[in-house]
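Recap from last week: sequence in, structure out.
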Amino acid sequence: MRLTRLTVRSFRNLADGTLEIPEPGLVLLGPNGQGKTSFLEAAAYPVLFRSFRTSQDGELVRFGENGFHVAVDFRRAGNVHSLGATFRTGRRKKELTADGAAVDRIVDVAGQWAAVVFTPEDVRLAAGPAAGRRLHLDRTLALSDHGYLAALGRYRLALAQRNAALRQGRADLAAAFDAPLARAGADITGARLAWVERVGGEFGTMLHALGEPATGALRYHGSPDLASAEAWPERLARAAPRDLARGATTVGPHRDDLELRLDGRPLRDYGSTGQHRSVAIALKLLELETIERAIGTRPALLLDDVFAELDEGRQARLAERIFGGATPPQVLITSPRRDELPAGLSLPHWQMGGGRVRI
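Predicted structure tokens:
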């Protein structure tokens, strides 16, 4: 998977234009606030047609403009493809294209261009609230399985409708959404459990490769019985009084979590800052490898000022993990300065200032 061209118009503070992207990737250097993260954000936007920084498309529009356009050309399995998105303020639906043809549904093109993003804020995967880990799980599985993405859409719709009925005090109306919630929720829970079972051992191995001596463990914290739709009616019935009182559904995978442990102890309570970073990196690398196994090609890797957050030893180990294989991924890296990057990084170095790239 290789990004070959990026086109932007009225996107954040980026200058309008088209850039040809080098085959192995690039390093984007420049002070903070000059548009480096926005560059990665634009490159990643057509993966799921949403930003990794905000859920509001309106926030991506350059000040004073009434919309934005982002397009990528990329090579996958020897073939060149294109994806584009145009958002206009005031319209309910953005316009999508794939290889020049209009597309009605995001689910039909999501993940055709595959990239994994890692930012310093992703350390919250290890130390932050459960919502971030659920989002990580959903992204990983949605990009590796379109069936999961479809189930996630159905689940979120049924959950929103059920919660709206509960807020109105309409238990009878809420019950009408129990069946679609159960079917989609069972698919989601089953897929998450299967993924954790499959990669649990890899998680510990990856941590050791990144220089973490403690033994890592990854478990799913939730209700395994909800992987069967038949278990849902009884669970929803038991929770009905509580759901009605709270005006929200309290049963389902939207409340689950990934349990992270080092040497048997909860990471959030006992892990150091360095361990949090190592665990977050391991989770992102698992995302990369999960998607690669599913689609048969390596996604691009977008690293936003990540090496600056690591000590020299962790920098070297991460660089070896990324570039040491026979077919390293295309890597786009941002950094304020060259001296915050691993030694020997042989990617083209570009400069960025005021939203403009200088090659």
